[in-house]
User: Which sequence fits this backbone?
């Protein structure tokens, strides 16, 4: 599901689409792959990427909605220029199935991540931009698909910023009413060969007055989960309270529901808490590389 977008989406942005995490839905320019020791991105690189995204998005009505949302949420310049994003993402299914709870540091510019268990600081997994890995003494430390999950959280709550990449198709749908407010609605699909699950789609809602994202409908079509080419039933994720993190507005929580036939939220099925949000540039060189003793996840 990876819930994606230039990489953004990366992560879901990877070489062979079916071999990389969802963030790999996007390509990163050669200069963007260069290492910057303190994880700050040169202003000229950021400005160039922002300019390209604005020109591309403003060509269509749907793109204009996304661009307005990016501006309302603090702007792509801040999203990429602030450094690596650090946070705790606690995914809690209400049916008692597997919880996914980890501290994460994500480099959204290069689509890299490191997760650390909330109960064992020595247990980690991540995505180097090319390889998924896990490092844990206990094989049950992460009882879920860590390759899929390496960048998925970012693509669940990083909208609209994760939509600035190539291979992303936007369609403006009719307005809807949500919690007594009129919403702009944009459907997101992906070109064939984009990322590990190009059949995913997302339907995003934005408050017409504030341009802030309020809800996300989506399916999961990850081939490792749906080997027959199918996908999950559609889900509706309500966006919770937004926090201002160095000028970027990001949700502190999400509530996932099954989607009803009328496109509204039905049964509440998953609680997601997003805490400890902050940007950081104070990371050692090689932070996102696979540590010694880690196992590559194929």
Assistant:
């Amino acid at each position: 599901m990876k819930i994606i977008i230039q990489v953004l989406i990366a992560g879901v942005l990877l070489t062979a689409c079916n071999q990389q995490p969802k963030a790999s839905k996007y390509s990163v320019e050669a200069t963007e792959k260069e290492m910057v020791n303190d994880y700050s991105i040169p202003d000229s690189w950021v400005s160039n990427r922002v300019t390209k995204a604005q020109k591309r998005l403003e060509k269509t009505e749907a793109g204009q909605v996304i661009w307005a949302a990016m501006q309302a949420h603090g702007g792509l310049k801040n999203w990429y220029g602030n450094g690596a994003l650090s946070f705790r993402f606690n995914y809690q299914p209400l049916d008692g199935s597997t919880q996914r709870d980890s501290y994460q540091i994500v480099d959204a510019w290069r689509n890299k991540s490191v997760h650390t268990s909330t109960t064992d600081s020595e247990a980690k997994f991540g995505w180097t931009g090319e390889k998924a890995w896990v490092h844990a003494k206990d094989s049950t430390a992460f009882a879920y698909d860590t390759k899929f999950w390496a960048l998925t959280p970012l693509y669940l709550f990083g909208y609209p910023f994760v939509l600035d990449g190539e291979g992303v198709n936007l369609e403006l749908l009719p307005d809807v009413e949500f919690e007594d407010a009129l919403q702009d609605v944009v459907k997101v699909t992906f070109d064939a060969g984009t990322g590990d699950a190009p059949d995913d789609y997302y339907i995003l809602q934005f408050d017409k007055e504030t341009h802030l994202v309020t809800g996300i409908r989506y399916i999961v079509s990850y081939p490792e989960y749906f080997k027959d080419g199918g996908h999950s039933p559609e889900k509706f994720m309500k966006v919770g309270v937004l926090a201002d993190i160095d000028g970027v507005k990001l949700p502190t929580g999400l509530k996932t529901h099954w989607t009803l036939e009328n496109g509204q939220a039905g049964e509440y099925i998953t609680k997601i808490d997003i805490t400890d949000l902050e940007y950081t540039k104070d990371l050692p060189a090689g932070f996102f590389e696979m540590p010694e003793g880690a196992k590559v996840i194929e």
